[in-house]
Design a protein that fits this description.
4-stranded mixed β-sheet, about 170 residues
Length: about 170
């Protein structure tokens, strides 16, 4: 009998799953504006500022924080900015939105910090099926970074890839 050979493993293709770049130890924690609102609906600036000063910010140390409001209140943009002034010195990252938004933002931050030497002149296959919800922004960030150094990028699974980029011959 003839030995079965894994042609993909021997091809020199670099298989990439974006979830591998999501920081594993990063904890995603919420910051809900609702408890800071008068009667759960109205943001009163003076009270809000006082409550923020008295809030225990240490719970966000080295975490990815997603800012949201669980009530139907309409918040001014400056409220998010004000909260961020407390978070930026201690949190890894602050994001306005959902837990999934925070996960994606943490992934994009990790992609932007990648050492690209591992992809130098490489032929990449970026995994198509991912457990990351709406990974379009993360994919764009990754492709934008690696396109500068690799020779080709394909999307999908090794058995059925879609060519995305091929470095022009010089």
């Amino acid at each position: 009998m003839e030995e079965i050979v894994n042609k993909v493993a021997n091809s020199g293709l670099i298989q990439v799953d974006l979830l591998d770049y999501l920081p594993k130890q990063t904890e995603l924690v919420p910051f809900d504006f609702a408890p800071f609102l008068w009667e759960g609906l109205v943001l009163r600036e003076k009270e809000f500022r006082t409550n923020l000063k008295e809030h225990d910010w240490s719970q966000y140390q080295d975490k990815v924080v997603y800012l949201f409001c669980s009530s139907d209140a309409i918040l001014p943009s400056w409220a998010f900015l004000l909260v961020n002034t407390y978070l930026s010195p201690i949190a890894k990252l602050a994001v306005a939105g959902t837990k999934d938004d925070a996960k994606q933002a943490a992934l994009i931050q990790a992609i932007n910090e990648l050492d690209l030497s591992q992809f130098e002149n490489g032929k990449l296959i970026v995994k198509g099926c991912s457990d990351l919800p709406d990974s379009s922004n993360a994919m764009i960030a990754f492709f934008s970074r690696v396109q500068t150094v690799c020779s080709s990028i394909m999307f999908g699974e090794p058995c059925s890839t879609v060519p995305i980029y091929k470095k022009p011959k010089s």
